[in-house]
TrEMBL record:
GO MF assignments: glyceraldehyde-3-phosphate dehydrogenase (NADP+) (non-phosphorylating) activity; lactaldehyde dehydrogenase (NAD+) activity
Highest taxon listed in the record's lineage: Eukaryota
One annotated Gene Ontology cellular component of this protein: cytoplasm
Entry keyword Signal: no
Domain Aldehyde dehydrogenase: 23-483
The name this protein goes by in its record: NADP-dependent glyceraldehyde-3-phosphate dehydrogenase
Organism expressing this protein natively: Pleodorina starrii
CDD domains: ALDH_F11_NP-GAPDH
Main location: cytoplasm
Amino acid sequence: MSDFYKDIVAPNGIYKFYLDGQWRESESGKAVGIINPSTRQTCFQVQACTQNEVNKMFDSAKVAQKAWAKTPLWKRAEYLHKVAALMRQNAQPIADCLIKEVAKPSKDSLTEVIRSADLLDYTAEEGLRFLGEGQLLNSDSFPGNPRNKMCLVSKVPMGVVLAIPPFNYPVNLAVSKLGPALMAGNAVVLKPPTQGAVAGIHMLQCFHAAGLPAGLLSVATGRGSEIGDFLTTHPGVNCISFTGGDTGISISKKAGMVPLQMELGGKDVCIVCADADLALAAKHIIKGGFSYSGQRCTAVKLVLVAEAVADALVAAVAEGVAKLSVGAPEADCDITPVVSESSANFIEGLIMDAKEKGATFVTGEYKREGNLIWPVLLDRVTPSMRLAWEEPFGPVLPVMRVASPEEAVAHCNASKYGLQGCVFTRDINAAIAISDAMETGTVQVNSAPARGPDHFPFQGFRDSGIGSQGIRNSLAMMVKTKSTVINLEKESYTMG
């Protein structure tokens, strides 16, 4: 390990947590093991933080935030630019952790780190513009009022933000919360996912090395089952930014009046019309369905194709799927092990349900070794199958044949999810009509669903989320509106 990262590991090899500007060992004396999805062996250990240590995080965050809120915007931006530069300089060790912790292919792991640095740079610049904007209102713009009041409208920090990213993008989706929160003048308590915690710790070392004030940023490691509820219901929390699955529903029910920014699950449908460019559609379906083994909230999770072109589309997709490499993330394979044995078992259960109910296995016999599942393309999936509704989060792509775009849209809108979707057609009028009818946060036209670029608005409907992300939207989420009303004496204001 390079000298840059030497302080983050205890002498016993257990990674430390971060509190009040220092890397520390937990008073619990306990550790949480992180399992390598490829080997199913423990690859790292992190501290199991106590509730007392969490309390200290919020206490120090509250104090540090008061001073940080008075720090000029240009100075906050300087810090973020410095963090971004440090992330680029020390990117490979972070990427190496992603390979081991979440079995992300090596090239994609490095891309995630660099993308995160880019996000910080953009957040700093956008924050200068957006957060520097105020508003002045005069009272006589409302009927019946004289011109004797001025209202100065400004943006002020929320306070302490609890940031909870998911395993599949533990660096990028942490940074997408940390950057806007800090730029907006907040302190942050970060709860990284267990799988991905060490990559998050390496990433946080870049914030530490940038010289961020002590207490402004804390990292609580440990199992969500032990400190999760304590964190999300802590009285010191002023905002929660969460990305993940059904846990978010539970958080939202317990949060009370705490503002929420949540991106949860998705069942992103791909509607392929009869007039679509099938080669283009197949290319994007393969990429959208199988990138990072389908472990993406914006993965294509159900293809709804017009019956007239279904055979041709399925054949084209099958040809592409057959070319996908399967194996180790270190070898940059297209399909790598899914994150855990329980995840692999869940995916297998969905596949077996579809098999029992008559789906066609286009890619041949189902194959699995440990957490590694070979890509599965299923044709003639019906609404009676779980795969028509549930999110597999794995390398399985179901295809349903539909009689019309209206039938496809109806199925899309009947889902409890509404994150993203896409439509393939050569008719722009049809594309807009279908997009308008789809009840999802984003609709891609002639491309697979995708979260980025990171400054685009990103949101989900129904059980797919609350609030909107994207850099400017996240900045807006991390502030409150403050009005200062100046009352003027009529005589001195009218001048004669």
